[in-house]
Amino acid sequence: MRMRFLTNSHVGLGHFLMSAEQLLTDLQGCFNQLKTSAKHIDDSNEHLVSFCERLEAIFCCGMKQPGSLFGFNKRDYWEWIEQLPNYVYNERQNPAFLQTTASIQASSKLRTALGRGRCFLRIALVRKILSVPVEHLLKNKKLTNYWYSKNSVIGNANLSSKFMGTLFEITAVDFDLQYKNASFLDETWILPVVLTLELTHIEDFGMVVGYEGNRCVVMSVAPKSLAHKVHIEAGDCVDEVNGEYVQSSGVRNLLHKSKTVTTLTIIKAKLPGGSPFAPLSKRMSALETRPGGEAAHRQGVRRLSSSAESDGAAQLTLDDERVYEVAFLGKTIVSEACGDATISTAIQDTLSGSRKPEDVKLIITDAAVEVKLSDSKNKTIAKYDYPDVSDCSCSQKARTCFGLIARKLKSSGVEHECLVFEAPSADMAKMASIQIAQGINRTVWFVDSVEDKSME
Question: Residues 145, 146, 150, 156: what is their CA dihedral angle, to the nearest 10 degrees?
């Protein structure tokens, strides 16, 4: 039967349901289970979370509150750990310990002393330095008494000696723990599944995000969108954009700074076994049940886009297609499958021809480009899925014109043709060509990623 205890993350410091001696005994028992379960301990080990909880309980047990007025502004064990280098005299300090504390202090993901302390314990287990801060603290009796009472494990001479023995035993075990995905250590010892994506820069990812609890949560994903193709789901969290931590609505600015490739770090809403990751479930529920009706709900929601548009009212409706009223000038066979020069030449050849322009609707979706006549029959005269479209760009001379190159299967093989269009304005021509080019890039990235996975 598991013995229950409370750490300072649950109640006030120093209030435990287990005595210091019981905590130490329980830690030793949990460690014995841990080391007999596997030679190398990683995050999948079923005993790891219980072991970390007990370890943390000992660091929290019997802590005093120096400098705390009337018990407010509770302090945590991380605070003495990070201050420890200032009190170590006349002896060489462990460089791994100094580097670890410095990296945690510099982290923007960890917002509380509790989260930083947990991150330190995880890294210390991997780097085999868990005994270092305790050993230094115990050498300074005044400092030990300043932070811990006599009824704690660390503040009791007999129990602290046993604790050091256990820490040395722990050092002999190899831990392989992740700490880059430590965003939620402020809330839980359980680490979520993290998905890292490298995407060619696009304007629209096809998902809506909301902000709750200082996190960017995915509210919905459009069918067949890029987000759907790379397995982003409602309830997931956008954690980083190009290595920068996403804080509240800052995601839009981070996306706008992306020039070519966007790297997204996504924290999944579900754990490996399929159970929900509690911190994200809580935020998703809060967004879905936000009081004040749909208008209030939309206040916390943004369409995830790389454009520099205003952070105004959110759009919950995802666009399935974009339609442009343009003129179809004709098409010509080209020798190259891509290239601005090839398209510019094809546009000039088409403009010099005698074909009469036709008013058409150019329909751009997440999956294809379709051309329909702008008449009552609405007849489709061409449709290309993105794998069949190789390039699209505007003319440098005739700025209202743009062309797309698509492959055409024939009995003799494959040939490429360039369809040429003229828009009412240069801005529309540029926008349409950019959106088609982005569709091509999305497809190229997705196909390449599938091929890479199939080769693993």
Answer: -50
